[in-house]
Amino acid sequence: MTGAEGASVKPLRKVSKLFALSCVESKDELEEKMESCYSLLLSRIREVSESEMHDALMVLIGQNMQDDVSLGLFYGILTNPTRAPLYYRGLTFITRDGMNFILTKANWIVIEMFAKMVDTAREQLLWFFREAIRSGITYMENITMNMFRWCLVGDLSARNVWVIDTMISILLENRPWLEKTVGLIPYSVYAFLRLIPDHLGEPYEALRQKEIHFCISMLRERFADCSQIGRDLVRLLVGVGGLPQFAALWRDLLLNPTSFSPQFSGIEQLLSIRTSRRFFISRISFELERRLFFLLINVKTVNQHYYLDWLEKQCLFRPECTSIKQDVVRYVCSCVHPNNSVLASDVIPRWSFIVWIMSTCTDPVENQQCKLALFFDWLFFDIEQDSIMNIEPGLLAAYHCCRSQPSVTASLLEFLSLITAEFYPSGKEAMKSCVRQAFKLMLEKGVVVTLAPLIDSICYNANLKASLLDLIPEGAYVSQREGLPVETLPMEPVCSMEMSSEDAEFSEEESDVLDIVEEPKEKGPTLDKTPTVDKTPTVDKTPTVDKTPTVDKTPSSVIQKPAEPKRDALINPLLKIQKVDIEKPLMSLDQSLRPMIEDMKAMDEDRAAQCDQMQSLLLAIFRLEDFDEDQASCLADCLCTLFKPLFNRKIFLSKDVRADADLLNSHPLFVIFRNLCLTPEEDASRQPLLLLLAEMYDKEERIGYLLLYFLRTSSCGDKSMSPYRDLAKVLSRDLQEMLVADLDMCVNDDLYLFFFLLPDMVGLFTSAATRLAEFIHIIVANTDSYLLHDFLMQLTQGDLQLFRRDTFSGVLQASLEWETMEQLFFWQLVNAERVPMDWIQSLIPKLEYPKHTEAMTWISILLRHMERDPSTMLVRLILSRDPTNEKDLWAVSMLQFLIDEYDERIAELIAAQLSKLVGSNGSSSSVASSKGGRKAAPKAPTLEQVLGHLDRYRCFTRRCHIFFSKDAVANALNQVKRNCSEAVKIQFAELFGILEVLDSVRGDNRSLRRVRRPVVSTPSATADDSSSED
Known about the structure:
Among the domains are: 29-253, Serine Threonine Protein Phosphatase 5, Tetratricopeptide repeat (Alpha Horseshoe), CATH 1.25.40; 278-471; 576-732, no CATH class; 844-919 and 940-1002. Helices cover 62% and strands 0% of the residues. The chain has 58 helices and no strands. It has 1030 residues and is mostly helical. The chain is globular. Residues 1-12, 480-580, 921-937 and 1004-1030 have low confidence and may be disordered. This is SOSS complex subunit A homolog. Belongs to the Integrator subunit 3 family. Residues 603-993 form the Ints3-like C-terminal domain. Residues 520-560, 1011-1030 are annotated as: Disordered.
């Protein structure tokens, strides 16, 4: 559409060219920005040659419009397929950041709005990704991973099939790029192995052949990368094992494993690698993930029926959606780990949700797949490596259903027994041992009190009972007839919420660092655990499976009395994380850097030697010619692991006492900071330092506030925070957003450090009201009277300016949602800075009683301490409040105070307001509409509102006759009475009647009153004065 056409047609609601929006949805800010940038761009490059277009683009870039030009070209690519190649070439011509800015916007669209995109925009977006990959753009890995999440399992709609076909075509066409992007290979194989079972029908033959060809070629040629998937790769291969193309693959896996990799010794080794939760997340769309998170964190059990129906209708309504349910179960078990507060609440428990999911599976094959997803971690459970939260839902589902739904309990226990024996017969005894460990740990932690209800619920099936007894620890079962009576056995589990929050670590999501394990200890028959990290698992020696079953020494008293959780058992996994293991990233480092890291590790607590070694390491980095992102990432891994003790300690023991007074000179991390501060911005060696710090920040965000601490304390620190600003640019983060995130982490880790940094942070929040509101909320939510007092003293001295006129209204509006104590501290900050009433008064009409009583109280206090006469605007805003709420006395109370203090001034202002309202045809409605046309001024009070407040004032105080007897007020009310409607006269009859009473009280001299009555010019003159003042 041309500019002239856009000007001639102005629809009530602009139609979006990118997204299919409902009638109640409006355009996103990003789309409006892109559309305006595109319009600007068209005005410069319409109907010109490509070379002339490039010249025009360079002119715009010279006007500091790089981002606007990029957004306009990107919008043209998405909406104009015929000119998209031209716009793409223009975009590559002007880009200076590897398209990082545009790819960030594109990634946001993929995450938040892809499901709503119209077909043309969706096709063009994937076309843009294809061209970016062909051009070798370096930031496409994350976007491609996010796009995999829109290759939906259980969706055979034409739109989803097209997305899947396009994605796999892009990968097949750009195989060299994919092989260089090794981190993408396991995710792509995982995604398409899950999608193949959906495409077995004849209409999807071509797509299925592409998927099969891609997966088999990757598994055979890049098995080392595919093995990062871990044991769930075996589970997925079982799901496609019936296809003839995978039969040969299975034969080689079982009989000739070295054909995949010389280091691969067999399927046991693959089963010993834990699958990262990132793979499970990659199979759940962003929309479904948000719904699941809301359901399992916020919805109470009593309301679950409505929300489960809602989830089924929104996400699981198609017949083919059954296949996604196994991914949902796997995601809930491995990724949704509620904290102790959620576990202690009446929110829908995970086991209940999983039972409901399986109850909706009409396909028996998919029902078995859901059970396999539920119990798969049991088969390879390692108490040293795995989280109890992964296996807890399976036990609780069987435990809670043994009375209400005994068939569900029997079905789950029968499946566990069969899968342990049949899934991998060669490792049968090892898997039995793992299941015993799982039962034993959950008994020790008190997940359930006893296993007796489970075993007794299947007593009718002797074979199942015998096989199940073989899976539980010896002595862990005593029949209810032999032990405690049924009535005394509680059915509610003693879950982890009974422990302190600092002990119950298994209620949080386990860190992926737990993938790094030590050499296996002697624990009976088990599969050898190959040490692995999610990114690069290695394939070692052939694991052996011990055929001798272990006799567990657990005493039978375990089921008589719940075992007390041992603190050592809970913190051992944490101690294990602290052990320094940098072998994996160390092997990828440049040979010149590797010995220095090993020396730093050997120096251990010799900080001075470590600092010297760090300086040598930095000099070696400066000499390297190819210190790229990969090298920086490996080095950052090593350093973050070595510096972990620093990240886990506090710098301040109290407000004025530091844990280590000489920390800046005694830790190698600050050597990096010092070099960064001392290196000029134009020096080429500054870039490797920023790159290294950016990679370290990605792995450990505490780097951010530690850098702030160094800049605040060190003599070489830059008070303008330029190193921190440069780090934010390298990370492509907004400065204020990054500051808020770092300070929020700092206040949780070290409260006194936060308030030590606070004075230097105030000046950095200058423009964005939203970030300033978040920053102030961090202050008031974490302070106490002692810390707030010192900060208030700094504000009152005038050295700091926390509030500014242009951002204060946004902060004020946000504060209304804070807790009472937080608002109390906030208004103390407002009072300390002596914020003028002009900045605050715009909030007065928006305050609701009793929702905003904190703000109303403090505004009334500030009004009582004003140092100037009340303005026309202040009185107008007070009169704009609703006078019909009888419980809200704030406005009438403020009117009484102002009248008592400034009686003549208030009388003039109210008389002027009344004269304005009746000055135009004597109609309050016409006055209101005329006021509505003035956009600069706030909405004026109506005549009914002003009279209502005066009437309430008449009833509120016994001294009202003094105010109403003033000539200005009396004349204005008489004028209103003569010009208002009969309905207004009846509504405020008592208010108008007070005029006659006051006239009679003044005296019997009627002639004097007759002289006064015609004088109507006084209020009009006042009104003119007021208008000029406005």
